[in-house]
Design goal:
- The longest helix is centred in the middle third of the chain and has 170 residues, at 2-171.
- It is built from one helix and no strands.
- The chain has 172 residues and is mostly helical.
- The relative contact order is 0.02.
């Protein structure tokens, strides 16, 4: 009987455990069902609240899509135009620089030529005009000095002739 009593006790304990597990599983089922109902309720409200926003966003995207395509197209055209203008400006700038270099070379050649001609002209004037003028001036000064010497000699003779008469008169 002790074996039967022990078996009976295990069977009772097992039955109680199974009933207890069944109650716990039923409680989990009920809580899961309530949570699912709440989640469905929240999802329904979220769907109701977001549906107008999604519809509006969809309408905005549909409206903006052609405009965005046009903006993108205009931007691509503007970029191509700017690139073409920049290339043209680079070409024009290169041409201007080339012309400026050519003109600078011409100006340098002109200035060098003018300076050379000025040096030649100065040398010519020096040799042809100034040297003869200096010679003539030297001759004129020599003649003037000679005449001055002659005048001074005559004036001394006159002064000597006059001073001897004055001396004689003073002597008497």
């Amino acid at each position: 009987m002790t074996i039967n009593g022990t078996i009976l006790a295990f069977v009772i304990v097992a039955a109680v455990a199974i009933v207890l597990q069944t109650v716990i599983l039923y409680a989990l089922y009920k809580m899961t069902r309530e949570t699912t109902a709440r989640m469905e309720n929240i999802a329904g409200r979220l769907e109701q609240q977001t549906a107008p926003v999604l519809v509006t966003a969809h309408a905005i995207l549909e409206d903006a899509q052609p405009k965005l395509a046009e903006i993108t197209s205009n931007l691509a055209e503007s970029t191509a135009t700017v690139r073409a203008q920049a290339a043209q400006m680079a070409d024009v700038t290169g041409e201007i620089v080339d012309r400026a270099r050519t003109q600078a070379a011409r100006l340098d050649e002109f200035v060098s030529s003018t300076v050379d001609k000025l040096e030649i002209t100065t040398e010519f004037v020096q040799n042809s005009v100034i040297s003869p003028v200096r010679r003539i001036h030297a001759i004129v000064q020599a003649v003037s000095a000679g005449l001055g010497f002659l005048r001074a000699s005559r004036a001394r003779r006159k002064a000597e002739g006059n001073s001897s008469g004055v001396d004689e008169e003073m002597f008497i």
